[in-house]
Specification:
alpha+beta, Ubiquitin-like (UB roll), 42% strand
């Protein structure tokens, strides 16, 4: 305000000073220290030889003030010389930041420069105040509401200043309590389960979820609104929100006042608009039905299903809107889904970008959507998922772009971000069955950008030492048939795995093919050769082992044929919540080799969500092996084993079934195991379900020796709880189990665990 008054006063004084115009013979600038006279001349609208008027004087003063270089400007006349007297504003010589631990000094100075506050710039007190406010805002966004910012401006010679900004950051203010007022239908803890803002738990030091953020609170209010709308409360409203902080700026309290309203049901569901697909087919995709509780979530899912169905027929820009007609008197809602399919479109081109190493053909052979055909949103998404599952790319995105000048053509733009396809990894772990495990692998999943796999492996534990080499071409044919080769050498010490004493040295090779028969189904075929050398101890030899070696020898050449079928519809290969995984395999040792036998194996894993956080799972495995032809008995070193973390918990690994006289497990040629699990999150860590799970389980199973038939009375059972954590250091799992139907010679374990680490 003072500067404005000064400017007005100068303009008034200048008006009287230049009552008479004159012709400028010279221009002189006085008071300059750092700024050159040429800079001042650039702001002048007059020059030598021009006629100087009162209007020109006012214009000079305004222009020079507007430049922000000067605190004071005066215009005078000395005879026919125009004299401009200025008082320069100081320049910023240096900016020192002190106490900023949370904010990086380099990045902070860079952002301040964008505001016009930097070394060499003209110093303005107003700008410094804006900088202080910006710093305060940044600390508030980090939850540090007790921050104190002080600035010192020190004058220097040559009209310069040194600025020192001191920040006492304080501590992060945490949320002490979140209170919801007005809820009568639902428990407060249930309403807050999906809030981003929490009062904290054991992981809050890492997740920061107990730090207040206005953005997080806004998201939480929308989550709360969705919770009620998904359960029929159409008139729900957040009436007010109060956020308070303690005097020491360390704790915050959030109060949310709501009005629930009443619950509405669905009176009727209708379809309207241009129904290019039979109404009966579309209506089957509507998940919400008459007399059901109103749910915005189910309505949205229904609209998406309808849109996707239209997209599968080429209507890529279809629009489906659900319009509710609310009858508040009867607490009912009539829903009408209006269908606008738009114009049908076909794909002109499919373009790929981002694959600097991987060849285009590697991606294009994954496409289910083809050029010059009607677009199908389902096939486009399948194509994207298949590319993502290759493992060569960090992410894969697709964009549907209308072709300019047309109404029925689109281009698909696939953009990928490649990851390093080669890796050198080592691992260290421990399990109750294998003891300490060390492994190392060199893997090239995308050799020379061709999509072919090459790997070298080493695995060492108290039970096994394995060396392996593998090569796979996932597209040996244009139809997607894969072909691979494997070479391996394996040393096994059975005693270390809680099995009767013997050891084997095995080396072999195989060639294999994979044949896709649908998106989720695949057949496999393998031809292999294996040489096995069996070593029996010099003392306490198991009689049947010695009999087998005496009869068949201790060195075997096996030529095998393996066929298999697999299907996988799980949503996640590590911690699934829905879907099924099945596999069936058969391996036959042919008469060409030393031994003749076969092995059959079936595995099934089934998952279904019970609620948003609960998953029910069933797992089962059946295995059977037998000899045929000239071999009298199934080879003992091919036996199945049960017990431990992999199947029947509560019993020591591999110890179920028939025992030797010394009490060692012999395994068997018939395996049957099953598990029922209820998967749930830790009560105070519900948001960590994707990486940390608890399960309540019931296991059943056993193995039966070649001299035994299946007897349900011999099955072993166990119940208990287990936990698995996909940690940054690898998968860790523990189990507490209570065994049932255990016999005197069974080896039981209440606590079992397994962990791994990759580095």
């Amino acid at each position: 305000m003072n500067k404005l008054l000064t400017t007005l006063l100068l303009l008034i004084m200048t008006s009287s000073a230049f009552a008479d115009s004159f012709v400028i013979k010279d221009i002189r600038v006085e008071g300059l220290q750092r700024i050159s006279a040429g800079t001042v001349f650039n702001f002048l609208a007059v020059k030598v030889g021009d006629e100087m008027t009162d209007k020109d004087a006012k214009s000079i003063i305004r222009s020079l003030y507007k430049s922000k270089y000067f605190d004071d400007v005066q215009v005078e006349r000395q005879d026919d010389v125009l004299v401009i007297i200025v008082n320069e504003r100081p320049a910023i010589s240096s900016i020192e930041l002190v106490g900023n631990k949370d904010l990086d000094s380099k990045e902070l100075l860079k952002s301040l420069r964008q505001l016009g506050f930097a070394e060499g710039q003209v110093y303005e007190q107003a700008m410094l105040e804006r900088v202080e406010l910006e710093l305060e805002r940044q600390y508030f966004s980090r939850g540090k509401y007790g921050v104190v910012i002080e600035s010192d401006v020190t004058p220097l010679d040559r009209n310069r200043v040194a600025i020192r900004i001191t920040m006492a950051e304080g501590v992060v203010a945490t949320i002490n309590a979140i209170n919801i007022v007005g809820n009568t239908s639902f428990d407060e803890d249930d309403l807050k389960i999906d809030f981003q803002s929490t009062t904290g738990n054991l992981l809050s030091a890492f997740t920061k979820d107990n730090q207040y953020s206005r953005q997080k609170l806004s998201a939480d209010l929308e989550t709360l609104r969705s919770y009620y709308l998904d359960r029929g409360y159409v008139d729900f409203v957040v009436e007010s929100t109060q956020v308070s902080i303690t005097d020491d700026k360390k704790q915050m309290f959030i109060t949310i006042n709501i009005s629930e309203g009443v619950r509405y049901s669905v009176k009727e569901v209708r379809l309207a608009g241009d129904l290019i697909v039979p109404e009966e087919e579309l209506f089957e995709l509507v998940l919400i039905r008459k007399n059901a509780i109103f749910s915005r979530k189910v309505i949205t899912e229904s609209s998406e299903l309808l849109t996707n169905r239209l997209g599968n027929d080429g209507y890529a820009f279809a629009n489906v809107n659900a319009v509710p007609d609310i009858d508040r008197e009867n607490r009912q809602v009539t829903l009408t889904f209006f269908v606008d399919p738009g114009r049908r479109a076909y794909v002109r081109r499919i373009n790929i970008s981002g694959n600097t190493k991987t060849r285009d053909v590697v991606l294009r052979r994954q496409f289910r959507q083809q050029e010059a055909s009607w677009i199908s949103t389902e096939k486009v998404e399948q194509s994207r998922q298949r590319i993502q599952r290759l493992g060569y790319f960090e992410n894969a995105n697709v964009e549907t772009v209308p072709v300019p000048g047309t109404t029925d053509q689109v281009d698909l733009e696939f953009n990928v971000a490649e990851t390093p396809s080669g890796s050198l990894s080592a691992g260290l772990g421990f399990s109750d069955s294998d003891g300490l495990i060390f492994n190392a692998n060199v893997v090239q999943k995308n050799f020379l950008g061709s999509g072919k796999h090459i790997n070298f492996g080493f695995n060492n534990s108290s039970v096994n030492t394995v060396y392996s080499f593998g090569y796979t071409n996932p597209f040996a044919t244009v139809d997607g048939i894969s072909q691979g080769y494997n070479l391996y050498f394996r040393e096994t010490d059975a005693e270390e795995a809680n099995i009767a004493r013997f050891s084997t040295d095995t080396w072999g090779a195989d060639i294999n093919w994979g044949i896709p028969i649908s998106e989720d189904n695949r057949l496999s075929l393998s031809l292999g050769y294996e040489n096995t050398k069996v070593k029996l101890p010099s003392d306490n030899v198991i009689g049947e082992y010695q009999d087998f070696v005496d009869r068949e020898g201790d060195n075997y050449d096996t030529f095998s044929i393996s066929v298999g079928w697999s299907k996988d519809t799980r949503d996640n290969a590590v911690l699934p919540t829905r879907g099924m995984s099945q596999s069936l395999s058969a391996t036959v040792a042919t008469p060409i080799g030393s031994l003749e036998y076969y092995k059959l194996r079936y595995k099934n894993k089934w998952y279904t969500p019970v609620t948003e956080t609960l998953t029910f799972a069933l797992r089962g495995e059946l295995g059977y092996g037998d000899a045929y032809g000239g071999t009298e008995e199934f080879p003992f070193f091919e036996n199945f084993y049960a017990g431990g973390m992999r199947n029947v918990r509560g019993f020591k690994a591999n110890t179920l079934g028939v025992k030797s006289i010394e009490g060692d497990a012999l395994g068997g040629n018939l395996l049957t195991t099953g598990t029922a699990e209820l998967i749930f999150p830790v009560p105070f860590m519900k948001k960590q379900l994707k990486s940390f799970r608890l399960t309540a389980f019931a296991d059943v199973g056993n193995v039966y020796h070649v001299d035994e038939d299946f007897d349900a009375g011999l099955l072993r059972y166990s119940t208990g709880v287990s936990a698995i954590w996909i940690s940054p250091f690898g998968a860790m799992s523990v189990a507490l189990a209570k065994p049932y139907n255990d016999q005197d010679d069974d080896e039981t374990e209440t606590f079992q665990f397994q962990l791994g680490s990759t580095f």
